Structures are given as C-alpha cells and as structure tokens.
Amino acid sequence: MKILSIETSCDETGISILEVKGKKKPVFKVLANSINSQIKIHAPYGGVFPALAKREHQKNLPILLERTLKKAKIKTTFPRHPIDLIAVTSGPGLEPALWTGIVFAKEFSKKWNVPIVPVNHMEGHILSVFAKDKNAFSIPKIEFPILSLLVSGGHTELVLIKDWQKYQIIGETLDDAAGEAFDKVARMLGLPYPGGPEISRLAEEKRKKNDLFSFSLPRPMLYTKNFNFSFSGLKTAVLYLIKKIGPLNEKAKMEIACEFENAVIETLVYKTKKAIEKYGAKTVIVAGGVSANKYLKKELKKITGSKQKLLFPEKELSTDNSIMIGIAGYFKFIKKNKKNTRASKIKAEGGLRL
Ligand code: KG4
Ligand code: ZN
Questions:
Q1: Which of 8, 182, 184 gets mutated to test ligand 1 (max ligand atoms within 8 A of its CB)?
Q2: Is residue 351, in this structure, part of any structural domain at all?
Q3: What is the 274 CA–ligand 2 centroid distance (Å)?
Q4: Which of 132, 303, 311, 339 is exposed most, by the fewest CB atoms within 10 A?
Q5: Which ligand is in closest contact with the Cα of 122?
Q6: Helix or strand (DSSP H, E) at 154
Q7: Are residues 101 and 242 located together in one domain of the fold?
C-alpha cells in the first residue's frame, strides 16, 4: 500500500509517500520525502511564531504535495490515484499549525476517497529510530520493555513501552522542554535559532580546551524521587549569571554554553539511568530534535552497557519529518483492522498525550 503522510505540528512542513509491502513483517520504502523548514522565518523571533507557522504551512502544503508526487513518479489524473491511506499529525503541537495539515488531509481524503488516520507526533518520534530516508527498512524484533527518552523543542518525556502502542509517561518536564531551554539560553548568548546545535558546538570547543570552569550551574530536580524534569530554573540561573558577568566575550560564552549543556545532559542521563534500572528496560529509544546532541549520545552510551540496546534516529530524521508520521499511521491503521476513522472526527489536539 501507499501512504501519503503529512506533518505540520510546528515549523516544518513535511509530506512523504511511503510504500509498505508485506503484512507479517512490513517493509517500508520512502518513495519521496519533502520537508520545508521555516527556521529562517522564525529566527528573528527566537522561537516559533504560531500565526506565521500557520500561514507558511498553508502556502507550502500544495506546492510540497505536487513536488512529492512528482518525485515519487506518481501521476494523479482525477479521480485516479494510487494512494491507499493518508496519515496526518493531529497533536501535540501548535493548534493553528496542526489544523493546516488536518484540513489539507481531509480535502484529499474526500477528493480521492481514501481513509485518513490521525497520528500522535510523539509516537512518530519514537518510531523515527527505525526509519531510513534512502533504503528500505522494517521494524526489527525489539526486546520489551522499552524506555524512551523524548527530547524536543516542545517535549521532554520518559516513556515506558511494554508493547507497541502501549505507552506510559513515567516522567516529564514540569516547565520548559530541554530543546526550548537550549533555544532560550542560546538567545541569551546572542546565538541564532535553533539554539541546540549552536550551544552544542560552543560546548564542544570548551571541552576540547579542557580548562577549569569559573562557575557552576544547578542540576534541577536531579535527586527528586521521580522521573520529572525542570529546566526553567536553570534558564533563570543562566540569566543571572550573564547579568553578573557583564558583557560576554567568546570565552565566557563558551563556558556558559558548556556548563549549561553539562547541566541538562547530566539531568537527562541520570534520570534515564534510574528509570532503566527501575523498569528493567531492555531497549532504550532516544528521539526528538535534542537526540542529535553528540554529548547526550556519548553520555547515554556510558550508562547503557551491553544489557540494553540503545537506538537513535538518523540525524536528518531526529527533527520533525513526515516519514515518522507515515510509519506510525500505518501501524495505527492496521491495528484498527482498517476500520476508518471518520474524517469529520479528526481534530487538532495541541496537548495530545501518548
Ligand atoms: O523535534 P524537533 O525538531 O521539534 C519539536 O518537535 O520540538 O526539536 C527541535 C529542538 C530545538 O529546540 C533545537 O534547538 C533542538 O531540538 N536541537 C538540539 C540539537 N539539535 C536540535 N538540542 C541540543 N543539541 C543539538 N545538537
Ligand atoms: Zn517533534
């Protein structure tokens, strides 16, 4: 079957066409994948501006669809078309942005008379670790329970997965998401949006120098007896530190970036380790934009050893994309025994949980 998948939850407009062959062990092949990033448009605001995101998605969706169909060498002469299913992100995310994808999906579901399946964006991120942009792929045999650390611009969650599609959030951020904290601190340091890669680059430079730190930052909630996180206090601590230091030179920026990254990663890794131990996780899935962070990868490798399989997405698929939405949509569709979700019932749910 061929799946058209659509992602518009934040600032990336994504459309892909996946081909799925075989029932018992489905093999996925990405026939075409298009992504249009709005990073440059939102950069002056230091974060995503919802009304602007909506406008950009609306403008880009028809153009991307045409381009994606062409790339996949698919011809659609109404009413003929080869698409069997449409998968669309219904949440969590920015509601005005989510609606653009949903309205677009509904329009084509009606025009082409194909079922439509709403997808949880976070489930997409979890499955993104199996996706390959260029080659065919299938979901390998996984040992449960899985512990998933989801770290993006909007979320920081630890999810326990006892079986596919059975998700339990065991901990989450009480305020800012990890990626959001990276972006906000980057802004304080005068670095461009998105801040994660910029902070990470400066932090690496500081680590290479191997010289001492002249200050330290807090590790919020490190020793609380739960799996929750909090990054807003850390962000405020950076703000006070910057005020205290005065005008920042390159050396000071590097040091702040590095100590900030150390504080975030130490907290993420410590709580992940505790959760692995408590739930006896056999597999660890790390996904979302922040999973591209090299230091996070390195530190997680240290705590997982040979007892757990540690999975990350390919770098290009760690940030938002529609391939992951197509995979999650396929499994949801199959599980529902192909019973269609009524298109009219699908709505944007900004706060949708796993
Ligand atoms: O998953 P994603 O593309 O979008 C959301 O669903 O939020 O994640 C984007 C977030 C941004 O906050 C960005 O700064 C962060 O991921 N990010 C990173 C790195 N690359 C992207 N954070 C830390 N280190 C990185 N290398
Ligand atoms: Zn995301």
A1: 182
A2: no
A3: 25
A4: 339
A5: 2
A6: none
A7: no
Distance, CA 100 to ligand 2 centroid (Å)? 16
Pick the residue whose CA is nearest to atom 26 on ligand 1: 293
pTM, 2 dp: 0.96
Q: What confidence category does residue 229 fall into, taking pLDDT thresholds of 50, 70 and 90?
A: very high
Helices marked H in the chain — which ranges? 39-42, 50-71, 95-112, 121-127, 178-188, 195-209, 232-245, 250-279, 294-304, 323-335
Q: Within a domain: residue 340?
A: yes
- Whether residue 201 sits in one domain with residue 90: no
Mutate to test the pocket of ligand 1, among 12, 150, 152 (most ligand atoms within 8 A of CB): 152
- Position in ligand 1 atom list of the atom nearest CA 319: 3
Could you tell me if the CB of 198 is within 6 A of ligand 1?
A: no
Confidence (pLDDT) at 338: 63
**Beta-bridge mates of residue 171:** 158
Closest ligand to 199 CA?
1
Give the number of whichever ligand sits closest to the CA of residue 194.
1
Q: In angstroms, what is the span from residue 11 Cα to ligand 2's centroid?
A: 10
Query: Which residue from 213, 214, 217 is spatially nearest to 188, judged by alpha carbons?
Result: 217
* Mean pLDDT within 81-106: 97
Q: Give the pLDDT confidence of 148-185 residue by residue, as tens digits.
A: 999 999 999 999 999 999 999 999 999 999 999 999 99
92 lines ligand 1 (CB under 6 A): no
Would you list the DSSP string of 342-354? PGGG----TT---
Edge-to-edge order in the sheet of strand 116-120: 27-37, 12-21, 2-7, 85-91, 116-120
Same domain for 171 and 303?
yes
* Enclosing domain of residue 179: 146-312
How many residues can be counted in the chain? 354
Please check whether residue 128 lies inside any domain of the structure: yes
Q: Are residues 119 and 233 in the same domain?
A: no
Residue 79 has pLDDT above 90, yes or no: no
